[in-house]
Specification:
7 domains, two-stranded antiparallel ribbon, Arc Repressor Mutant, subunit A, 927 residues, 5-stranded parallel β-sheet, Rossmann fold, 4% strand, mainly alpha
Amino acid sequence: MTPYPVTARFVPILLERSAELAAIVRALDEAAAGRARTVVLRGEPGIGKSSLLDAATRTASDRGFRVRRAGFTVLSSQAAFGLVWDWFGADALAADDSSFDGPARLVRDLIRGHATAEPMALAYAVHWLVASLAEHEPVLLVVDDLHWADDASRRLLTTLLAKLSTERVAVVVATRPPLDAAVEADLATIAAAPRSVLHEPRPLSLDAIATIGGSADVDPARVLHASGGVPFYVHELIAHGLEASPARVREGLLARLAQLPADAREVVETAAIAADGISPTVLAHAAGVTSERIAGLLPVLDAAGLLVTRGDAVVPTHPIVIEGVLDGLGAVRRAQLHARVAGALRAAGAPPVAIAAHEVETDPAGDVERARSISEAARLALQSGNAQLAARFFARARIEGGIAPEETGRLLLEEGRARVLAGDPAAGLELMRQATRAGEDPRVKADRLLELGDAAYMAGDYATAGEAYAGARVTMAAIPGVSDRERRLVLGKTAANELTFSPEPLGEVLAELQQIEPWPPEEDTDADRALFGVAALAFALSGRDGGAEYALRALGDGRGIRPGIGDDPLTYMLSGALNYLSLFAEGEFWLTAALADARDSGSVQAFGTASYARGALRIAHGRLRAGLADLEAARGASELGWRNYFPAMQYFLAKGYLYTGEVELAGEVARLDPGPQPAGFASVGLAAQLMYLVAAGEPEEAIAFARARLADGPNLLATLGEDWRVPLAEAYAQLGQPDAARRVLRSAAELAPASAPAHSKATRIVAVAGLETDPAAREALYRRALELVDDHYPQAAEAQLGLAELALARGHDEVAQHHARDALRYALAEGAVPLATRAREVLARAAPGESALPSDDRLALLTASELRIAEVAAHGKRNREIARSQFVTVKTVEFHLGNVYRKLGIHSRAELAKILGATADDGILDF
C-alpha cells in the first residue's frame, strides 16, 4: 500500500496546529533520548491529519531519523499485514540488509514469499527489527488512516507499542473516530498506552480561514459556515467557489469528474476502485485505454486535483476523493470495475491476495478460476495470521460456485477452521460439521472429523470434540490399512478430551496399553509415547498406581524429545502428569526441551505454553524465583498474542508474586483479561483474583467474589493440584470467623482427589494448623506437613515457622531458632519476603542480639525479569543471544543487565556468575 499523496492545493497551511506539532517534536526529542513515545492524531476526514504526518516526516528526516511510513485505504481490510509491507517492503525486496538478522529474518522472508508467519512470531520479529534499526539511528514510524487497516496490522501495532520502551523510536498515528467496535477497542488501547498521547485537531477559526484566503475574493465567514472549519473543505471552497456544505464539496468533485472526457472518467473511477495505488500500465489495461492515452491524461487529472502519480503508482489525491467517487458509483458498476482491476492485476502477475481483494467485490458468476484464486488468497491470509480475512475469502469462494462437491467440502472445512481461529467457534464448528458430511471418501471423512475434534477441543467445546473423535474412530475402523500409529493418535486425542470431564482411567486406553506394554520401550513410537502420557495423567488423577511408570515410559529416556514437541498439545498432557505425580526433575527436563524446541522453531505460541508449563511446575514445587522468571516470560509471550492456558498463567504468576510479597503485582496480573476461555479454565483466573483480594486485606469482598464467581461453576484447579477454598478459608479467618474457615477447609479436604499431590495436601494441612487452638494438635499437623514435603517447598517453611512459634511459646528458644533458620534459608533462597520477615522476627525473639543466617540478600532486590536475564548472562551468553532466547530485544537485555549490575553493585559477568552460582539451584539455570 502507498500512503495518500496530497497535491499542493489540498495541503493546508499548518495554522492553529501548534499543540499537535509540539507533541510531535516532544516525541521525537524523547525518542532520540531513548524513550519510545507515540502520538495519536484523531479527527474527522479532512481535518489535516495527513498534513501533520507530512510535517512529522520532514522534521524527523531533518533530525536524522530513519522514517518508515504506512497508509491504509478503504481496500486495506482485504489484505493481511499491510503495515509490514508498507514499513519494510522496499528494504526486504532489495539486496540483503543486516537489519534483517536473527528473528527479523521472518519479516523479510514473509515479504519475499519464502515463509508464512504466526502473528505472535511476526510481532516479535517486527519488534526486533525496529529495535535493531534504532540501534544505529532513531526511528520514526508513521501510520496514516489506521481505522482502515486490516485486523492483523492493528493487532500488530498494538502489540508493538506495548513492547516499545527504551528504544529510540517515535510513532505517529492518524485515524478517524472509528465506527466498528473492534477497531474502536484497538484504537482506544493505543491511545491509552502509558507512552502515548492523544490529540484531536480542532476546526480552523475565522482568522485562520482569512489567512488562507489571502487576497482571494472570498468571504471567510461564509467559508467557515460552509466548511465547518475543516481544512480540506476550506481549501476546496476557496479554490472552486463552492458555497454549501461538505456534501456539496463532494458534489463539486463529481461535477469536475463529469466535465472530463469519458475515458478520463473511466481512469479516475478505476483508480478510486484500486484505492491503494496502481501502476499506470495496469491502470490503462483495467480502464481500457492505451499507454499513450494514460500518459496524456495523468497530468490533466493531477491539475484537476483528482489523481496524482507518486513513484510507480497512481493514487487519488485524498481519501475524500476516493469516497466521493465511490459514492457516485452504483453497486453493479463497482462490481464491474473490481472485475476489470482483478483481470488487469492477474495479467500483470500480481500476488493472489492483491487480485482476490477485488474479486471478492464482484458478483458471483460460477467462475472456477475466480473461486480458486480467492480460496488460494484465503489460505495465504490464514497462514499469515489473518483468520477473519481468510474466513471472508473462503465464504466468497464458496458463493462463487462452479466447483466440484469435494472442493466445496474442503472450503467448508477451511472456512470453519478460520472462523474458529477468528473467535467465532460456534459458526466455525458448524461449518466443519457440514464439511464432514460432504463427500463419500471415508479417509477424507475421518481426517475432517479429526480436524473438527481438534478445533472443538481448542475452542473448549469438549462435547463436540468427543463426538468428532468418536466418529473418526468409527470411520477409520472401516478403512483398510489404517496403521496402529493412526489408531493410537486418535485414541490419545479421545482420552485427552475425556479427561476434561472425568479423572477416571479409560478402559479402551488400558486395552490398547496392554498391546503395547509387552514391546521393548526402545520400539515405542511417538504415538505410543503420546498414549502413555495420556494414561499417566488419567492414572494420576484417578489415584490409581502406575501413573509414574507410564509417565517415565512416555519420556522414553529422552527419545521423545524431537522437533515439534514445543507445538504438540500432548507434550503438555505429559507435563501435567509429571507435575501431578511430583516428578519435578523429569518435568523440568521435559519442559526445558520443549522451550529449546520453541526457540529453535521461532514459535512464540510454543514458547508461551512451555514457559507457562515450566513456571507452573516450578511455582507448585516451591522454586519461586525460577518459576516467576518463566511465568513472566509467558506473560510477555501473551502480549504477542499467546493465549493458551492464560488463566492458569495468571493463577501461578499471582501466587508466585504473593509468596514474594509483591501484592500489587499479583493484583495487576489477576485483573488481566484472558479473552474467551472455556469455563473451567476461566475459573482458574478467577481464583487468582480471589487470592489477591485476600492478600490485599479485603476479606468481605473476597467471600462475596467466591460465592458469586467460583462456588457453583466448573473449575480445573483440582487438576493442577490447587484449591481456591484455601484462600477463602483465610478470608473467613481474617474476619474472625474460624468456624466458617474450618468448614471451608473440611470441604476442600472432602472434595480433593485422593491422588492430589503432596504439596497440595500440605497446603491444606498448614491452613488447618493455623486455625487449631490446641498446641499439641497444631504441632502434629505441622509435622505431618513436613512428612509430605521437603525443605524446597514454601509449605515446609511455613510449617517450620509454625513449629518455631510453638517452641517459643513453650520457652524452647534453641528449638525455635532451629526451625526459624530452616524457614529463613528457604525464604532467602527463593525471595519469599513475607516468610523471611516472619522468620527473622521469630529469630529476634528466640535469640536477641544474634544475627540471622549469612546470606547474599542482594538477589532479593532483583525482579523476576532481571533475574531471568541475569541467569542467562551468567552462563556467558552474549546480549544478542540472550535476546533471541528470551523473545525480547537487545535493548531490553541491556536495560535489565544495567539494573542488575547497579542493584548488585558489580561490574562484570564473572562477578554475576559468582553470586548466582553460590545461591541458585542447577535447575534454575537450565536455559
